[in-house]
Amino acid sequence: xxxxxxxxxxxxxxxxxxxxxxxxxxxxxxxxxxxxxxxxxxxxxxxxxxxxxxxxxxxxxxxxxxxxxxxxxxxxxxxxxxxxxxxxxxxxxxxxxxxxxxxxxxxxxxxxxxxxxxxxxxxxxxxxxxxxxxxxxxxxxxxxxxxxxxxxxxxxxxxxxxxxxxxxxxxxxxxxxxxxxxxxxxxxxxxxxxxxxxxxxxxxxxxxxxxxxxxxxxxxxxxxxxxxxxxxxxxxxxxxxxxxxxxxxxxxxxxxxxxxxxxxxxxxxxxxxxxxxxxxxxxxxxxxxxxxxxxxxxxxxxxxxxxxxxxxxxxxxxxxxxxx
Length: 324
Fold this sequence. Notes:
By secondary structure, the chain is mainly alpha-helical. It has helices at residues 2-5, 8-25, 30-41, 51-60, 64-70, 72-92, 105-111, 116-130, 136-153, 159-192, 195-205, 210-225, 230-247, 252-266, 274-282, 288-311, 314-323. The longest helix has 34 residues, at 159-192.
């Protein structure tokens, strides 16, 4: 779902309605259920298509298609580490995730019938980008048309729902445009003021290793993530930091993936932890203490992934490199 949606908050809000009742029916602990939903929702801004990656690409002039490709393997790594976190939690406390009854393969295949639309839409959007049939902007239009066609074929589209969809799309688009306009004005201002160049020259004059600078930038992002929402954090910091990273010889595609992963971590980091508060609104009977306790193992898994991507750039650069 996150691969099609591209929004972490929307993924968490939707999956809380879909997955939470089922996990409670099978007697999963609230901490494990809510933690897996909140943390899993963060994958929505890394696994393409991703709104944050599009904004990063627009602000830095980086190829958005290559950014999307770079996000695939780190996204898969995140899924595997989250699965490992769940395994550790259940091994330490079997009551948090009791075993459910087994289903036959026929029942499993029957359950998959309802996801054909999501798979088809994802294949259309990402396949078109990777094969060069259309640009990321064109892919967005094709995705919207594809989603509309699927809704018509399923008989779930009425004139009233179409009106609500169009109004919601207009509101979201207007909000994003205002944010982007403000961010680009801010970027223009700091460039005219010479801040990125001055900061880059100052960092180079310090005669410290590029990796030390990268660790400092990551530390700043982790701190800001505790007090700022993800989108404003990216809009305000990328114009300042990316020229420095470029001057130090770091790959901007790789740095973009690091920025998104740190942004993911900020979505489940107290005291802001936006995904946690979205989930709290949807599951009001679960305390914030339980929610943050539930996301802690996944937060640790994210730090492990951040370390791996930072020290092994090839994980994120493999697919863009193969694509040329």
